[in-house]
Amino acid sequence: MYVDFEDLPSESKIWIFQSNRPFSEVERTGINNQMRLFVNTWHCYGEGLQASFTVKHNQFIILGVDENISSISGCSVDSSVRIIKLLEDEFGFELFNKLNIAFKIGENMNTVSLAEFQNFVKEDKINGETIVFNNLIDKKGDLDSNWEIPANKSWHNRFLKAVK
């Protein structure tokens, strides 16, 4: 059952899917329509899940579920993977490539390959204060404090240290 993303409790389980590029307006409409339909019918062992999604920075799909209401199973996770894969296939963007790294300089979003990110560090285009996206977080409450963080406070820090 769909609920507003903001109404999910902070301990809700989340999955972050980062696109390799910004979504067009048509894609964003399609994502919203398909994800809302999916979330409304998402279930675990026949019981509807209290779940939601949001699109952030026109490049991230964040799916969340309140596990206080119903626990999620492997089959339920598999069905969420299928809808994300369907979106990839339909619109031609990548959502599962973990070697793409997103970062912000000012308000400008950038997405590059891991190799490009490492080169940007070497060229001093990226430093410890550059805002990166820690897509490893898995609780909704961490979105505000641990998702958009300086590179030196995230797992990206290993690439900064490797250059020095």
Describe the biggest sheet?
4 strands, antiparallel
Number of domains: 2
**CA-CA gap between termini:** 49 Å
Q: How many distinct beta strands?
A: 9
Strand content: 15-25%
Order of strands across the biggest sheet?
A: 7-6-8-9
Percent of residues in helices comes to 25-40%
Low-pLDDT regions: none
Radius of gyration (Å): 17 Å
Average of per-residue pLDDT values: 93
Form type: globular
Structural commentary:
The chain has helices spanning 25-41, 74-91, 114-122, 143-147, 157-163, and strands at 13-18, 43-44, 47-48, 51-56, 60-65, 100-105, 108-113, 131-133, 148-150. The chain has 164 residues and is of the alpha+beta class. The protein has two domains: 5-91; 100-163, no CATH class. The strands form three sheets. It has a four-stranded antiparallel β-sheet with strand order 7-6-8-9. A hairpin with a 3-residue loop joins strand 4 and strand 5 (60-65). Helix 1 runs antiparallel to helix 2 (74-91).
Q: How is this fold's topology laid out?
A:
Elements lengths: L12 E6 L6 H17 L1 E2 L2 E2 L2 E6 L3 E6 L8 H18 L8 E6 L2 E6 H9 L8 E3 L9 H5 E3 L6 H7 L1
Antiparallel strand pairs: 1-5, 2-3, 4-5, 6-7, 6-8, 8-9
Helix pairs in contact: 1-2
